[in-house]
Design a protein that fits this description.
This protein has helices at residues 21-39, 80-99, 102-118, 120-131, 135-159, 194-205, 219-231, 246-254, 268-278, 309-321, 341-353, 373-389, 418-421, 437-445, 460-469, and strands spanning 44-45, 48-49, 52-53, 58-64, 67-77, 163-164, 171-179, 182-186, 209-213, 239-241, 261-265, 290-294, 299-303, 331-337, 391-395, 408-411, 428-434, 449-450, 452-456, 474-477, 494-495, 498-499, 513-521. By secondary structure, it is of the alpha/beta class. The chain folds into two domains: 26-295 and 503-516, Aldehyde Dehydrogenase, Chain A, domain 1, CATH 3.40.605; 299-477, 3-Layer(aba) Sandwich (Aldehyde Dehydrogenase, Chain A, domain 2). The strands form six sheets. It has a seven-stranded mixed sheet with strand order 15-16-17-14-13-19-20, sandwiched between helices.
Protein backbone atom coordinates (compact mmCIF):
# COMPACT_ATOMS: atom_id res chain seq x y z
CA UNK A 1 0.00 0.00 0.00
CA UNK A 2 1.09 3.59 -0.59
CA UNK A 3 2.17 5.54 2.47
CA UNK A 4 2.50 8.99 0.95
CA UNK A 5 -0.30 11.48 1.62
CA UNK A 6 -0.79 14.57 -0.54
CA UNK A 7 -0.09 17.79 1.34
CA UNK A 8 -3.11 20.05 1.69
CA UNK A 9 -4.39 22.76 3.98
CA UNK A 10 -7.90 21.40 3.67
CA UNK A 11 -9.82 19.96 6.62
CA UNK A 12 -13.20 18.24 6.41
CA UNK A 13 -16.19 19.88 8.06
CA UNK A 14 -17.52 17.87 11.00
CA UNK A 15 -21.03 16.39 10.86
CA UNK A 16 -23.54 17.40 13.49
CA UNK A 17 -23.54 15.24 16.61
CA UNK A 18 -27.21 14.51 17.23
CA UNK A 19 -26.48 12.93 20.59
CA UNK A 20 -25.93 16.47 21.89
CA UNK A 21 -29.18 17.96 23.16
CA UNK A 22 -28.23 21.50 22.13
CA UNK A 23 -27.77 20.39 18.50
CA UNK A 24 -31.17 18.73 18.51
CA UNK A 25 -32.79 21.91 19.80
CA UNK A 26 -31.01 24.07 17.20
CA UNK A 27 -32.18 21.68 14.51
CA UNK A 28 -35.76 21.78 15.74
CA UNK A 29 -35.61 25.58 15.78
CA UNK A 30 -34.42 25.58 12.16
CA UNK A 31 -37.29 23.29 11.14
CA UNK A 32 -39.69 25.60 12.95
CA UNK A 33 -38.19 28.58 11.11
CA UNK A 34 -38.69 26.89 7.74
CA UNK A 35 -42.25 26.00 8.74
CA UNK A 36 -42.94 29.66 9.52
CA UNK A 37 -41.61 30.71 6.11
CA UNK A 38 -43.84 28.11 4.46
CA UNK A 39 -46.90 29.31 6.33
CA UNK A 40 -46.10 32.93 5.47
CA UNK A 41 -45.61 31.91 1.80
CA UNK A 42 -42.15 33.48 1.80
CA UNK A 43 -40.22 30.62 0.22
CA UNK A 44 -39.65 31.02 -3.51
CA UNK A 45 -37.21 30.46 -6.34
CA UNK A 46 -36.83 32.30 -9.63
CA UNK A 47 -34.18 32.89 -12.29
CA UNK A 48 -31.31 35.24 -11.53
CA UNK A 49 -29.53 36.88 -14.46
CA UNK A 50 -26.91 39.63 -14.13
CA UNK A 51 -27.67 39.67 -10.41
CA UNK A 52 -31.34 40.52 -10.93
CA UNK A 53 -34.57 38.57 -10.62
CA UNK A 54 -36.17 37.35 -13.82
CA UNK A 55 -39.65 35.90 -14.26
CA UNK A 56 -40.74 33.36 -16.84
CA UNK A 57 -44.27 32.39 -17.81
CA UNK A 58 -44.38 29.10 -15.86
CA UNK A 59 -44.61 28.79 -12.08
CA UNK A 60 -44.95 25.56 -10.10
CA UNK A 61 -45.25 24.74 -6.42
CA UNK A 62 -42.54 22.78 -4.68
CA UNK A 63 -44.03 19.98 -2.56
CA UNK A 64 -43.06 18.24 0.64
CA UNK A 65 -42.73 14.58 -0.46
CA UNK A 66 -43.79 13.42 3.01
CA UNK A 67 -46.90 15.62 2.93
CA UNK A 68 -47.72 16.20 -0.76
CA UNK A 69 -50.66 18.46 0.06
CA UNK A 70 -48.24 20.92 1.65
CA UNK A 71 -46.92 23.50 -0.82
CA UNK A 72 -43.53 24.73 0.33
CA UNK A 73 -43.08 27.62 -2.04
CA UNK A 74 -43.42 28.81 -5.62
CA UNK A 75 -40.77 28.12 -8.25
CA UNK A 76 -40.70 30.29 -11.36
CA UNK A 77 -39.13 28.64 -14.40
CA UNK A 78 -36.75 30.29 -16.82
CA UNK A 79 -37.70 30.22 -20.49
CA UNK A 80 -35.48 30.34 -23.57
CA UNK A 81 -35.53 34.12 -23.69
CA UNK A 82 -34.21 34.31 -20.13
CA UNK A 83 -31.62 31.64 -20.91
CA UNK A 84 -30.35 33.57 -23.91
CA UNK A 85 -30.20 36.73 -21.82
CA UNK A 86 -28.10 34.83 -19.27
CA UNK A 87 -25.67 33.69 -21.96
CA UNK A 88 -25.22 37.26 -23.20
CA UNK A 89 -24.53 38.46 -19.66
CA UNK A 90 -22.04 35.67 -18.97
CA UNK A 91 -20.18 36.18 -22.23
CA UNK A 92 -19.72 39.84 -21.34
CA UNK A 93 -18.28 38.87 -17.96
CA UNK A 94 -16.15 35.91 -19.06
CA UNK A 95 -12.87 37.76 -19.55
CA UNK A 96 -13.13 39.69 -16.29
CA UNK A 97 -13.79 36.54 -14.25
CA UNK A 98 -11.07 34.57 -16.07
CA UNK A 99 -8.58 37.39 -15.38
CA UNK A 100 -9.44 37.48 -11.67
CA UNK A 101 -6.40 36.05 -9.83
CA UNK A 102 -6.92 32.40 -8.80
CA UNK A 103 -6.26 33.21 -5.14
CA UNK A 104 -8.97 35.87 -5.22
CA UNK A 105 -11.44 33.45 -6.80
CA UNK A 106 -10.51 30.86 -4.18
CA UNK A 107 -11.21 33.31 -1.35
CA UNK A 108 -14.65 34.04 -2.78
CA UNK A 109 -15.43 30.31 -2.90
CA UNK A 110 -14.26 29.97 0.72
CA UNK A 111 -16.66 32.75 1.62
CA UNK A 112 -19.50 30.68 0.13
CA UNK A 113 -18.47 27.90 2.52
CA UNK A 114 -18.50 30.31 5.46
CA UNK A 115 -21.93 31.63 4.54
CA UNK A 116 -23.23 28.05 4.42
CA UNK A 117 -21.75 27.44 7.87
CA UNK A 118 -23.69 30.43 9.18
CA UNK A 119 -26.94 29.10 7.66
CA UNK A 120 -26.14 25.44 8.15
CA UNK A 121 -29.19 24.41 10.16
CA UNK A 122 -31.58 26.40 8.00
CA UNK A 123 -30.19 24.85 4.80
CA UNK A 124 -30.42 21.39 6.34
CA UNK A 125 -34.01 21.95 7.45
CA UNK A 126 -35.00 23.12 3.97
CA UNK A 127 -33.44 19.99 2.43
CA UNK A 128 -35.47 17.83 4.82
CA UNK A 129 -38.70 19.57 3.84
CA UNK A 130 -38.13 19.80 0.09
CA UNK A 131 -36.37 16.51 -0.61
CA UNK A 132 -37.46 14.22 2.23
CA UNK A 133 -33.96 13.57 3.57
CA UNK A 134 -33.72 12.37 7.18
CA UNK A 135 -31.73 14.50 9.62
CA UNK A 136 -28.31 12.87 9.31
CA UNK A 137 -28.57 12.57 5.52
CA UNK A 138 -29.56 16.22 5.13
CA UNK A 139 -26.81 17.35 7.49
CA UNK A 140 -24.29 15.34 5.48
CA UNK A 141 -25.50 17.08 2.32
CA UNK A 142 -24.63 20.50 3.74
CA UNK A 143 -21.32 19.26 5.16
CA UNK A 144 -20.29 17.95 1.76
CA UNK A 145 -21.20 21.23 0.07
CA UNK A 146 -18.97 23.12 2.52
CA UNK A 147 -16.17 20.60 1.93
CA UNK A 148 -16.38 21.02 -1.84
CA UNK A 149 -15.95 24.80 -1.51
CA UNK A 150 -12.95 24.61 0.80
CA UNK A 151 -11.27 21.73 -1.01
CA UNK A 152 -11.59 23.15 -4.53
CA UNK A 153 -10.42 26.55 -3.29
CA UNK A 154 -7.27 24.94 -1.93
CA UNK A 155 -6.73 22.95 -5.10
CA UNK A 156 -7.11 26.01 -7.33
CA UNK A 157 -4.49 27.92 -5.36
CA UNK A 158 -2.03 25.20 -6.35
CA UNK A 159 -3.16 24.97 -9.97
CA UNK A 160 -3.12 28.75 -10.35
CA UNK A 161 0.65 28.94 -10.04
CA UNK A 162 2.49 28.60 -13.40
CA UNK A 163 4.85 25.64 -13.47
CA UNK A 164 8.38 25.76 -14.83
CA UNK A 165 9.18 22.96 -17.25
CA UNK A 166 12.57 21.59 -18.29
CA UNK A 167 15.05 24.44 -18.54
CA UNK A 168 17.69 24.41 -21.26
CA UNK A 169 20.17 27.06 -22.27
CA UNK A 170 18.50 29.84 -24.21
CA UNK A 171 14.91 28.67 -23.56
CA UNK A 172 12.29 29.32 -20.86
CA UNK A 173 9.16 27.14 -20.65
CA UNK A 174 6.08 27.56 -18.46
CA UNK A 175 2.93 25.46 -18.10
CA UNK A 176 -0.30 27.04 -16.89
CA UNK A 177 -4.08 26.78 -17.15
CA UNK A 178 -6.92 28.88 -18.47
CA UNK A 179 -10.68 28.41 -17.98
CA UNK A 180 -12.75 26.84 -20.73
CA UNK A 181 -15.32 29.62 -20.95
CA UNK A 182 -19.05 29.23 -20.27
CA UNK A 183 -20.01 26.30 -18.05
CA UNK A 184 -23.46 24.75 -17.71
CA UNK A 185 -24.10 22.86 -14.47
CA UNK A 186 -27.13 20.55 -14.37
CA UNK A 187 -27.73 19.32 -10.85
CA UNK A 188 -29.69 16.40 -9.37
CA UNK A 189 -32.35 16.43 -6.64
CA UNK A 190 -30.97 13.61 -4.50
CA UNK A 191 -28.01 15.64 -3.21
CA UNK A 192 -29.76 18.96 -3.75
CA UNK A 193 -27.06 21.17 -2.22
CA UNK A 194 -23.82 19.16 -2.21
CA UNK A 195 -23.66 18.09 -5.85
CA UNK A 196 -24.92 21.31 -7.51
CA UNK A 197 -22.64 23.26 -5.18
CA UNK A 198 -19.64 21.05 -5.92
CA UNK A 199 -20.05 21.29 -9.68
CA UNK A 200 -20.78 25.03 -9.58
CA UNK A 201 -17.87 26.07 -7.38
CA UNK A 202 -15.51 23.83 -9.36
CA UNK A 203 -16.52 25.70 -12.51
CA UNK A 204 -16.32 29.11 -10.85
CA UNK A 205 -13.06 28.71 -8.96
CA UNK A 206 -11.33 27.68 -12.20
CA UNK A 207 -12.48 30.91 -13.83
CA UNK A 208 -15.44 29.75 -15.88
CA UNK A 209 -18.60 31.86 -15.94
CA UNK A 210 -21.36 29.48 -14.90
CA UNK A 211 -25.06 28.70 -15.27
CA UNK A 212 -26.67 26.53 -12.58
CA UNK A 213 -29.77 24.67 -13.76
CA UNK A 214 -31.06 22.75 -10.72
CA UNK A 215 -33.46 19.81 -10.69
CA UNK A 216 -37.07 20.93 -10.71
CA UNK A 217 -37.82 19.07 -7.46
CA UNK A 218 -35.08 20.85 -5.47
CA UNK A 219 -35.20 24.41 -6.77
CA UNK A 220 -35.86 26.06 -3.40
CA UNK A 221 -32.65 24.85 -1.77
CA UNK A 222 -30.74 25.57 -4.99
CA UNK A 223 -32.07 29.14 -4.95
CA UNK A 224 -30.76 29.63 -1.42
CA UNK A 225 -27.35 28.45 -2.62
CA UNK A 226 -27.48 30.75 -5.66
CA UNK A 227 -28.08 33.75 -3.41
CA UNK A 228 -25.03 32.81 -1.32
CA UNK A 229 -22.87 32.59 -4.45
CA UNK A 230 -23.62 36.20 -5.30
CA UNK A 231 -23.45 37.35 -1.68
CA UNK A 232 -19.96 35.88 -1.40
CA UNK A 233 -18.72 38.12 -4.20
CA UNK A 234 -19.00 36.16 -7.44
CA UNK A 235 -19.66 38.91 -10.02
CA UNK A 236 -23.23 39.16 -11.29
CA UNK A 237 -22.00 38.65 -14.87
CA UNK A 238 -20.11 35.47 -13.91
CA UNK A 239 -23.04 33.44 -12.53
CA UNK A 240 -26.66 32.82 -13.51
CA UNK A 241 -29.33 30.72 -11.85
CA UNK A 242 -31.91 29.18 -14.17
CA UNK A 243 -34.49 26.87 -12.59
CA UNK A 244 -36.64 25.24 -15.21
CA UNK A 245 -37.87 22.18 -16.99
CA UNK A 246 -35.00 19.93 -18.01
CA UNK A 247 -36.50 18.94 -21.32
CA UNK A 248 -37.00 22.57 -22.30
CA UNK A 249 -34.45 24.87 -20.73
CA UNK A 250 -31.85 22.18 -20.06
CA UNK A 251 -31.97 20.87 -23.61
CA UNK A 252 -31.88 24.41 -25.02
CA UNK A 253 -28.70 25.23 -23.12
CA UNK A 254 -26.99 21.91 -23.86
CA UNK A 255 -27.45 22.55 -27.58
CA UNK A 256 -26.34 26.19 -27.51
CA UNK A 257 -23.14 26.97 -29.41
CA UNK A 258 -21.89 29.28 -26.67
CA UNK A 259 -21.68 26.58 -23.98
CA UNK A 260 -18.11 25.32 -23.64
CA UNK A 261 -18.48 22.89 -20.72
CA UNK A 262 -21.36 20.79 -19.40
CA UNK A 263 -21.20 19.28 -15.91
CA UNK A 264 -24.07 16.86 -15.25
CA UNK A 265 -25.19 14.46 -12.54
CA UNK A 266 -28.30 12.38 -13.19
CA UNK A 267 -29.69 9.45 -15.13
CA UNK A 268 -27.82 7.38 -17.70
CA UNK A 269 -30.37 8.19 -20.40
CA UNK A 270 -30.01 11.96 -19.98
CA UNK A 271 -26.25 11.78 -19.56
CA UNK A 272 -25.79 9.82 -22.79
CA UNK A 273 -28.09 12.24 -24.60
CA UNK A 274 -25.99 15.18 -23.38
CA UNK A 275 -22.78 13.48 -24.55
CA UNK A 276 -24.36 12.83 -27.95
CA UNK A 277 -25.56 16.41 -28.34
CA UNK A 278 -22.25 17.86 -27.20
CA UNK A 279 -20.46 15.92 -29.94
CA UNK A 280 -22.40 17.74 -32.66
CA UNK A 281 -20.80 20.92 -33.92
CA UNK A 282 -23.18 23.81 -34.45
CA UNK A 283 -22.54 26.57 -37.01
CA UNK A 284 -20.02 29.10 -35.67
CA UNK A 285 -19.26 26.92 -32.63
CA UNK A 286 -15.62 27.60 -31.76
CA UNK A 287 -14.90 25.03 -29.07
CA UNK A 288 -15.45 21.31 -28.61
CA UNK A 289 -17.81 20.98 -25.66
CA UNK A 290 -16.35 19.21 -22.66
CA UNK A 291 -18.77 16.91 -20.81
CA UNK A 292 -18.35 15.72 -17.23
CA UNK A 293 -21.14 13.28 -16.41
CA UNK A 294 -21.98 11.08 -13.43
CA UNK A 295 -24.79 8.72 -14.36
CA UNK A 296 -25.57 6.26 -11.61
CA UNK A 297 -24.92 2.67 -10.64
CA UNK A 298 -26.21 -0.80 -9.86
CA UNK A 299 -23.99 -1.37 -6.88
CA UNK A 300 -23.25 -4.72 -5.27
CA UNK A 301 -22.10 -5.72 -1.80
CA UNK A 302 -20.38 -9.09 -1.40
CA UNK A 303 -20.76 -10.96 1.91
CA UNK A 304 -17.95 -13.48 2.30
CA UNK A 305 -18.47 -16.74 4.21
CA UNK A 306 -16.28 -15.53 7.08
CA UNK A 307 -17.76 -12.01 7.24
CA UNK A 308 -18.81 -10.36 10.48
CA UNK A 309 -22.55 -10.57 9.90
CA UNK A 310 -23.33 -7.88 12.47
CA UNK A 311 -21.28 -5.38 10.49
CA UNK A 312 -22.49 -6.72 7.14
CA UNK A 313 -26.17 -6.41 8.00
CA UNK A 314 -25.68 -2.89 9.33
CA UNK A 315 -23.68 -1.88 6.25
CA UNK A 316 -26.21 -3.28 3.78
CA UNK A 317 -29.22 -1.77 5.55
CA UNK A 318 -27.71 1.70 5.52
CA UNK A 319 -26.38 1.39 1.97
CA UNK A 320 -29.62 0.00 0.53
CA UNK A 321 -32.27 1.94 2.43
CA UNK A 322 -30.60 5.18 3.57
CA UNK A 323 -32.50 8.07 1.94
CA UNK A 324 -34.87 5.43 0.54
CA UNK A 325 -32.16 4.07 -1.77
CA UNK A 326 -32.09 7.31 -3.77
CA UNK A 327 -28.31 7.51 -4.12
CA UNK A 328 -26.26 6.61 -7.15
CA UNK A 329 -23.96 4.80 -4.69
CA UNK A 330 -26.78 2.86 -2.99
CA UNK A 331 -26.50 -0.91 -2.67
CA UNK A 332 -29.14 -2.59 -4.82
CA UNK A 333 -27.55 -6.05 -5.12
CA UNK A 334 -26.23 -8.40 -2.43
CA UNK A 335 -24.14 -11.48 -3.18
CA UNK A 336 -23.58 -13.77 -0.21
CA UNK A 337 -21.06 -16.59 -0.50
CA UNK A 338 -21.88 -20.19 0.35
CA UNK A 339 -23.41 -21.13 3.68
CA UNK A 340 -23.63 -17.56 5.00
CA UNK A 341 -26.43 -16.74 2.54
CA UNK A 342 -29.42 -17.99 4.55
CA UNK A 343 -28.36 -16.68 7.99
CA UNK A 344 -27.37 -13.34 6.49
CA UNK A 345 -30.66 -13.01 4.64
CA UNK A 346 -32.64 -13.89 7.76
CA UNK A 347 -30.85 -11.27 9.83
CA UNK A 348 -31.07 -8.70 7.04
CA UNK A 349 -34.86 -9.06 6.84
CA UNK A 350 -35.14 -8.82 10.62
CA UNK A 351 -33.10 -5.63 10.55
CA UNK A 352 -35.18 -4.17 7.72
CA UNK A 353 -38.30 -4.84 9.78
CA UNK A 354 -36.88 -2.61 12.54
CA UNK A 355 -36.25 0.41 10.29
CA UNK A 356 -38.23 3.46 11.39
CA UNK A 357 -40.33 4.72 8.49
CA UNK A 358 -42.05 8.08 8.43
CA UNK A 359 -41.82 11.83 8.04
CA UNK A 360 -38.12 12.80 7.88
CA UNK A 361 -38.80 15.90 9.95
CA UNK A 362 -38.98 13.53 12.92
CA UNK A 363 -35.47 12.91 14.28
CA UNK A 364 -35.93 9.14 14.65
CA UNK A 365 -36.93 8.56 11.01
CA UNK A 366 -34.56 6.41 8.97
CA UNK A 367 -36.61 5.65 5.84
CA UNK A 368 -38.51 8.59 4.40
CA UNK A 369 -40.44 9.13 1.17
CA UNK A 370 -39.15 9.05 -2.38
CA UNK A 371 -38.91 12.38 -4.16
CA UNK A 372 -42.21 12.60 -6.07
CA UNK A 373 -45.31 10.78 -7.26
CA UNK A 374 -43.68 9.76 -10.55
CA UNK A 375 -40.87 8.00 -8.68
CA UNK A 376 -43.33 6.38 -6.31
CA UNK A 377 -45.56 5.02 -9.08
CA UNK A 378 -42.59 3.82 -11.15
CA UNK A 379 -41.07 1.97 -8.19
CA UNK A 380 -44.34 0.40 -7.07
CA UNK A 381 -44.95 -0.87 -10.60
CA UNK A 382 -41.43 -2.33 -10.83
CA UNK A 383 -41.83 -3.99 -7.42
CA UNK A 384 -45.16 -5.48 -8.44
CA UNK A 385 -43.70 -6.92 -11.65
CA UNK A 386 -40.60 -8.20 -9.85
CA UNK A 387 -42.80 -9.91 -7.24
CA UNK A 388 -44.43 -11.89 -10.04
CA UNK A 389 -41.04 -13.09 -11.27
CA UNK A 390 -38.95 -13.43 -8.07
CA UNK A 391 -39.22 -14.62 -4.48
CA UNK A 392 -40.08 -11.86 -2.04
CA UNK A 393 -38.04 -12.11 1.16
CA UNK A 394 -39.29 -8.99 2.90
CA UNK A 395 -41.51 -5.99 2.38
CA UNK A 396 -42.07 -3.32 4.99
CA UNK A 397 -45.02 -1.08 5.74
CA UNK A 398 -45.31 2.62 4.92
CA UNK A 399 -47.62 5.54 5.78
CA UNK A 400 -50.62 6.09 3.55
CA UNK A 401 -49.90 9.79 3.08
CA UNK A 402 -46.78 10.81 1.22
CA UNK A 403 -44.67 9.38 -1.57
CA UNK A 404 -43.53 6.35 0.40
CA UNK A 405 -42.24 3.09 -1.06
CA UNK A 406 -41.73 0.10 1.25
CA UNK A 407 -38.30 -1.35 1.86
CA UNK A 408 -38.35 -4.46 -0.33
CA UNK A 409 -35.92 -7.40 -0.43
CA UNK A 410 -35.96 -10.15 -3.07
CA UNK A 411 -34.07 -13.42 -2.65
CA UNK A 412 -32.56 -15.96 -5.07
CA UNK A 413 -32.62 -13.39 -7.88
CA UNK A 414 -31.22 -14.62 -11.20
CA UNK A 415 -28.47 -12.65 -12.92
CA UNK A 416 -30.66 -12.18 -16.01
CA UNK A 417 -33.55 -10.67 -14.05
CA UNK A 418 -34.35 -6.98 -14.69
CA UNK A 419 -34.43 -6.43 -10.94
CA UNK A 420 -30.75 -7.51 -10.90
CA UNK A 421 -29.58 -5.34 -13.81
CA UNK A 422 -31.73 -2.18 -13.90
CA UNK A 423 -31.04 0.85 -11.74
CA UNK A 424 -34.29 1.46 -9.84
CA UNK A 425 -33.23 4.32 -7.56
CA UNK A 426 -35.36 3.30 -4.63
CA UNK A 427 -35.48 1.05 -1.53
CA UNK A 428 -35.36 -2.21 -3.48
CA UNK A 429 -32.69 -4.86 -2.91
CA UNK A 430 -31.97 -8.02 -4.91
CA UNK A 431 -30.08 -10.87 -3.18
CA UNK A 432 -28.44 -14.01 -4.50
CA UNK A 433 -25.97 -16.72 -3.48
CA UNK A 434 -22.54 -17.39 -4.97
CA UNK A 435 -20.69 -20.68 -4.61
CA UNK A 436 -17.31 -19.01 -4.20
CA UNK A 437 -15.78 -15.61 -3.62
CA UNK A 438 -14.47 -15.59 -7.18
CA UNK A 439 -17.96 -16.25 -8.51
CA UNK A 440 -19.27 -13.44 -6.31
CA UNK A 441 -16.85 -10.98 -7.91
CA UNK A 442 -17.90 -12.16 -11.37
CA UNK A 443 -21.55 -11.59 -10.49
CA UNK A 444 -20.78 -8.15 -9.08
CA UNK A 445 -18.86 -7.13 -12.20
CA UNK A 446 -21.65 -8.36 -14.48
CA UNK A 447 -23.22 -4.92 -14.83
CA UNK A 448 -23.16 -2.05 -17.28
CA UNK A 449 -22.36 0.22 -14.34
CA UNK A 450 -19.14 0.54 -12.33
CA UNK A 451 -19.67 3.10 -9.59
CA UNK A 452 -19.42 1.69 -6.06
CA UNK A 453 -19.19 -1.70 -4.40
CA UNK A 454 -18.36 -3.19 -1.03
CA UNK A 455 -16.99 -6.39 0.46
CA UNK A 456 -17.40 -7.78 3.97
CA UNK A 457 -14.72 -10.38 4.64
CA UNK A 458 -12.16 -11.40 7.27
CA UNK A 459 -9.90 -12.98 4.65
CA UNK A 460 -6.84 -10.84 3.77
CA UNK A 461 -6.42 -12.81 0.54
CA UNK A 462 -9.99 -12.17 -0.55
CA UNK A 463 -9.73 -8.48 0.28
CA UNK A 464 -6.62 -8.27 -1.90
CA UNK A 465 -8.41 -10.18 -4.65
CA UNK A 466 -11.41 -7.83 -4.46
CA UNK A 467 -9.13 -4.80 -4.61
CA UNK A 468 -7.68 -6.12 -7.86
CA UNK A 469 -10.72 -7.68 -9.52
CA UNK A 470 -13.88 -5.93 -8.23
CA UNK A 471 -13.94 -3.26 -10.95
CA UNK A 472 -15.74 -0.19 -9.61
CA UNK A 473 -14.76 3.43 -9.12
CA UNK A 474 -15.17 3.33 -5.34
CA UNK A 475 -14.65 0.02 -3.55
CA UNK A 476 -15.26 -0.18 0.21
CA UNK A 477 -13.89 -3.01 2.33
CA UNK A 478 -15.77 -3.97 5.50
CA UNK A 479 -18.08 -0.96 5.34
CA UNK A 480 -21.11 0.11 3.30
CA UNK A 481 -21.09 1.35 -0.28
CA UNK A 482 -22.33 4.91 0.41
CA UNK A 483 -21.01 7.95 2.24
CA UNK A 484 -18.04 9.20 0.22
CA UNK A 485 -16.22 12.10 1.88
CA UNK A 486 -14.40 14.86 -0.01
CA UNK A 487 -10.64 14.22 -0.37
CA UNK A 488 -10.84 11.01 1.69
CA UNK A 489 -12.95 9.16 -0.90
CA UNK A 490 -12.87 10.98 -4.27
CA UNK A 491 -16.06 9.85 -5.96
CA UNK A 492 -16.90 8.63 -9.46
CA UNK A 493 -17.10 5.55 -11.65
CA UNK A 494 -16.69 4.32 -15.19
CA UNK A 495 -18.47 2.17 -17.79
CA UNK A 496 -22.05 3.53 -17.87
CA UNK A 497 -21.61 5.17 -14.47
CA UNK A 498 -19.98 8.22 -15.92
CA UNK A 499 -17.24 10.03 -17.75
CA UNK A 500 -14.81 12.28 -15.95
CA UNK A 501 -12.46 12.21 -13.00
CA UNK A 502 -13.51 11.91 -9.41
CA UNK A 503 -15.42 14.65 -7.59
CA UNK A 504 -13.62 15.75 -4.44
CA UNK A 505 -10.30 14.46 -5.77
CA UNK A 506 -7.00 16.06 -6.79
CA UNK A 507 -7.58 15.95 -10.56
CA UNK A 508 -11.25 17.01 -10.68
CA UNK A 509 -10.59 20.69 -11.40
CA UNK A 510 -8.37 19.84 -14.37
CA UNK A 511 -11.50 19.00 -16.35
CA UNK A 512 -12.64 22.62 -16.08
CA UNK A 513 -9.34 23.98 -17.39
CA UNK A 514 -7.33 24.05 -20.59
CA UNK A 515 -3.54 23.72 -20.27
CA UNK A 516 -1.22 26.06 -22.10
CA UNK A 517 2.55 26.14 -22.64
CA UNK A 518 4.58 29.23 -23.44
CA UNK A 519 8.14 28.82 -24.72
CA UNK A 520 10.43 31.84 -24.88
CA UNK A 521 13.73 32.06 -26.71
CA UNK A 522 15.92 33.90 -24.20
CA UNK A 523 18.90 34.17 -26.59
CA UNK A 524 17.34 37.19 -28.35
CA UNK A 525 19.70 39.74 -29.84
CA UNK A 526 19.45 43.01 -28.02
CA UNK A 527 16.38 44.60 -26.46
CA UNK A 528 14.42 47.82 -26.63
CA UNK A 529 14.86 49.61 -23.29
CA UNK A 530 12.43 52.35 -24.28
CA UNK A 531 9.65 49.74 -24.10
CA UNK A 532 10.49 48.67 -20.55
Amino acid sequence: MLDNVAETNFKNESPTDFTVLRNIRLFEEALSSVKSLIEAKELEAHPIVAGKAEWGKTTIESQDPAIPTLALGKVNFADRTIADKALISLQSGAKGWADTPPKERAEIIRKIANLMREKRYFLTALIICECGKPWMEADGDVVEAIDFCDYYAAQMEKLGEPQKLVEVMGEHNIYFYQPRGVALVIGPWNFPLAIPCGMTVAALVTGNVTILKPAEQSSLIAFEFAKLVLEAGVPSDAFAFLPGDGEEIGAHLVQDRNIDLICFTGSKAVGLWIIEQASKRIDDQRTIKKVIAEMGGKNAIIIDEDADLDEAVKGVLYSAFGFAGQKCSACSRVIAVGDCYEPFLKRLCAGANDLIVGDPKRPETFLGPVIDVESQQRLLERIKKATEENSLAFQGEVPQEGYFVPATIFKDVAADSPIWSDELFGPVLACTRANSFTEAIELANNSEYALTGAVFSRSPNNLVLATKEFKVGNLYLNRGSTGAIVQRHPFGGFKMSGVGSKAGGPDYLLQFLEPRVVTENTMRRGFTPELL
